[in-house]
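Researcher: Final request for today, and then I'll write up notes for the group meeting. The sequence and the SMILES for NAI follow.
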Amino acid sequence: MKILVSDPVSAAGVEILQKEFAVDVKLKLPPEELIKIIPEYDALVVRSETKVTKAVLAAADKLKAIGRAGVGVDNIDVEAATQKGIIVLNAPEGNTIAATEHTVAMMLALARNVPQAHQSMKEGKWERSKFMGVEMRGKTLGIFGLGRIGTGVAKRALAMEMEVLAYDPFISADHAKALDIELAEIDDILAKADFITLHLPLTPETKNLLNKEAFAKVKPGVRIINCARGGVVNELDLAEAVEAGIVAGAAIDVFEKEPVNPDNPLLKLDKVVVTPHLGASTAEAQVGVAVDVAHGIIAALRGEPVTTAVNMAPIPAHVLKVIKPYLDLAEKMGCLAVHLADGRINAVDIEYNGEISQVDTKMLTTALVKGLLNPILQESINYVNAPGVAKARGIKVKEIRSKEAVDFANLITVRVRTDKGEHRVAGTLFGQEGRIVLIDGYRVDVAAEGWLLIGPHINKPGMVGKVGTILGEANVNIAGMQVGRTETAGTNIMVMSIESDIPTPVMLKIKAVDGILGAKLVNFNAG
Ligand SMILES: NC(=O)C1=CN([C@@H]2O[C@H](COP(=O)(O)OP(=O)(O)OC[C@H]3O[C@@H](n4cnc5c(N)ncnc54)[C@H](O)[C@@H]3O)[C@@H](O)[C@H]2O)C=CC1
Ligand SMILES: O=C(O)C(=O)COP(=O)(O)O
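Model: Predicted protein-NAI complex:
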């Protein structure tokens, strides 16, 4: 598999990728060049410079994952990627401290006119009175967005003895209270804050959050810091508010258009301090995000769950710890169930019994559906597109969870209903090993690995021998074998672990054996 790195990403991450894949680093690609070469690649790694547009995604025939070495994914058309089943993942934690500290640096630089004084001295001047500043202590800081960076800034502001107000409707009052931060509404912050700092993603809701109308409501003399995204603050409205003296100054790291247009009015104002999107630019942060994104890409290309995928529901670490050992088993159960099923699948019921039912099992359900759809569809099914593909095909997926343990401490049972009948598979873990313990009402105990030959048959002597002879003559080796019984006498099931594929003519011979009630071959390796 091949990976394209199209923005400057630390060598620490590139080297991790190179251990497993072929990696091309091609920087500053014009959009048409990216569209031309993207069909060759299985994964793409970017920062904020590369624009992963609809047109790029339309050409990306092999692309399975896009890794953003940083937080903001506003340069990626996530919706178009999701529709194509491409996992978009980021590295949200590696640059938190860098962006937090840059925000504090910008806030202090703004308060004390550091860049302007520096420039003046470099020009040979000594202008002490021109650069009178203000203190932070006792001032009110309004924070929009109390996530990782907003919280980091709040802690540092509290250490500088500032009052902190924050607006973030998705944060609990308890989280804010524990940090000694008061949650407030937008207008309240606008009216009270001496400094306002933004730490929001750029979304349709946050675009132009600080515009003309908002500046009409601010406390006169407020200072604005934006190290989040250009566009959250309207640049023209901000420039006007600074010129009108309503806003005493601004410190801006991010712009609506990057690289910034030299005519941007903010660049012309002495009271506006600017940096060229440097929030994440520390040696430590760049190693952090590059390493994290590399691990995310590797997981995505291996078909493993990606905890930092942005186009999937995030999985809390404590939930992942419980469900992770079951993911592979669930996927293989889906694969087995679809092999058993004849006809059009209408519904899939998945029952979780025992302790496992006490956590969010959505991801296990997705793994099972992924395993179920992969053998029957041309397109590659993954954790991102599996639920949508099932829905589009009219397959109703239902989860049933019950704490009550049935025979095993933890048990997953899938029932696949087709227009021709119902099939059932149950599985559990023995230690870390996934075992299938029930197939269509027959009790079995087999590892979900390699190839499985499943042969329901009439309970009479010689059945296993006949199948074994056919396989032997075809030079197919049997690694393990068992015969399961149901409560109802008369039929048994043989389940054979096979070391290689069984050619179709050999399968036809097995199916034709008198007393065999339909034989199936399941390939657990495909997927
Ligand atoms: N200047 C730079 O180089 C860097 C910029 N960033 C940017 O900083 C921003 C924040 O990053 P993190 O703190 O890591 O993200 P985060 O996801 O931890 O925090 C974002 C917060 O915004 C809140 N939020 C989302 N929509 C909202 C809305 N409509 N109204 C109010 N609150 C809303 C969320 O609840 C969340 O708490 C992002 O835009 C990111 O791209 C991040 C790193 C470096
Ligand atoms: O992580 C983010 O959201 C950033 O804005 C950092 O951008 P960059 O990787 O420095 O282009």
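Model: The two ends are 16 Å apart (CA to CA). Residues 96-274 form a domain with the Rossmann fold fold (CATH 3.40.50.720).
Researcher: Thanks, that's everything.
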